[in-house]
Specification:
Largest sheet: 6 strands, mixed
Protein name: Uracil-DNA glycosylase-like domain-containing protein
Strand order of the largest sheet: 5-3-6-4-7-8
Shape: globular
Number of helices: 8
Distance between the termini: 43 Å
Number of domains: 1
Order of helices and strands: EEEEEHHEHHHEHEHH
Strand content: 15-25%
Structural class: alpha/beta
Organism: Microvirga flocculans
Length: 230
């Protein structure tokens, strides 16, 4: 039997055994504020990646450095003095919505238990055709794109390409840049979103003016969310 979430979206039975290729928070799909799409490397899971949208949950992975670093950026650019990563996550939970959506460059899951050298080998082993299909789904390049992913992508103001300078992402990174340029979607490339990389990422965003774009999205999310502190 299919499950239905608070937004009325059905989840097919057995879907929890797969990792959706496009992730949003809570009931974000039912809201209208703008979004920032963060495209990482690959999910750190032992599940196959499947086309379609699904939810992420900070509470289920409270120590996920990637999600926490993205939330930290949202806190920094929230317009609220002293806003912390933990506090912004509480805001998202209270609102059951967030302006951050996530996807990955590769259509495979790689557990964080896999040694780095083996990860590089496994990344390079992903067929280009599989990457093409995956990116076409994430960016809605198909003739009949997934309706839920399409509705979310239509709200994306800009994209953060995170950590794609690592070995094994040459093809996926190049295709992402090509597609985003073709779609006219603004994007910025950063180091992998992780604690030790954040000082350099913040400096790069400020130097290029991307911090202003981030603040603009957060300002509109704040205006749409009555749970946001004044």
């Amino acid at each position: 039997m299919n499950k239905r979430d608070a937004a009325g979206v059905e989840t097919p039975a057995g879907a929890d055994l797969l990792h959706p290729s496009f992730l949003y928070y809570g009931e974000t799909v039912a809201r209208s504020f703008p979004l920032i799409l963060v495209i990482g490397r690959e999910p750190q899971v032992d599940k196959p990646v499947s086309p379609g949208a699904g939810t992420y949950d900070f509470r289920g992975s409270p120590r996920c450095g990637f999600w926490n670093s993205a939330a930290g950026l949202a806190a920094r650019y929230s317009g609220v003095p002293g806003m912390t990563t933990a506090a912004i996550k509480r805001v998202f939970h209270a609102a059951q919505a967030a302006p951050l959506v996530f996807a990955d460059a590769l259509p495979i899951g790689l557990s964080d238990k896999i040694p780095p050298r083996d990860k590089a080998r496994l990344r390079r082993a992903v067929p280009k055709a599989a990457i093409d299909r995956h990116l076409a789904h994430v960016l809605c390049l198909e003739d009949r794109p997934d309706a839920q992913v399409r509705s979310l992508m239509d709200r994306v103001e800009f994209v953060i390409l995170s950590g794609h300078a690592a070995p094994g992402f040459e093809y996926a990174s190049g295709m992402l840049v090509r597609h985003l340029e073709g779609l006219g979607v603004p994007f910025v490339r950063t180091a992998f979103l992780f604690g030790s990389n954040m000082p350099g990422i913040l400096s790069a965003l400020a130097a290029s003016g991307w911090d202003t774009r981030f603040r603009s999205v957060m300002r509109r999310f704040r205006a749409a969310d009555r749970n946001f502190p004044a």
